[in-house]
Amino acid sequence: MLNNNLYIIKNIRLFPKDVMRDMLEKGERLFFEKGEHVIIPGMLMQSVYLIEAGNASVYKLHIDGKECILGLVSPREFVNLIDIFSGKETTIFCKALTDLSIVKIPKQEIITIVN
């Protein structure tokens, strides 16, 4: 069992460029304004979020209520990829630091691509 989940997949070529391009072209687009939450704890992730434009912060809340930043997410990076495979509710927050465009890719499509 993993103690430290990967919440942000950075600088790793998980998919070939043509597959990434297809995901960006075919996925459902979601838009968030600066300050809006994209993900909150308790959500059961059924899709992967791929940042198309803008930046977001991924964090947890410390016991004293302070944000504990896990990372910053930029274009062409995934948020919460691991949670779709765990089947558990997410424990993180993801908040837009700028206006944000996200491509939502269904879990089953990611599984098909991986297989």
What does the model show?
This protein has helices spanning 17-26, 83-86, 107-114, and strands spanning 8-9, 28-32, 37-39, 47-53, 56-61, 67-73, 78-79, 93-96, 100-106. Residues 1-12 have low confidence and may be disordered. A 5-stranded antiparallel beta sheet has the order 1-7-4-9-2. A hairpin with a 5-residue loop joins strand 5 and strand 6. The protein contains 3 helices and 9 strands, in the order E-H-E-E-E-E-E-E-H-E-E-H. It has 115 residues and is α+β, with helices and mostly antiparallel strands. The protein starts with 7 loop residues before the first strand and ends with a helix.
**Largest sheet composition:** 5 strands, antiparallel
Q: Tell me the strand order in the biggest sheet.
A: 1-7-4-9-2
Helix content: 10-25%
Question: Which H/E pattern describes the elements?
Answer: EHEEEEEEHEEH
Unreliable stretches (pLDDT < 50, length at least 5) are 1-12
Overall geometry: globular
Number of H/I helices: 3
Q: If you average the pLDDT, what whole number results?
A: 82
Share of β-strand residues: 35-45%
How many strand elements? 9
Radius of gyration: 14 Å
Distance between the termini: 22 Å
Structural class given helices, strands, pairing? alpha+beta
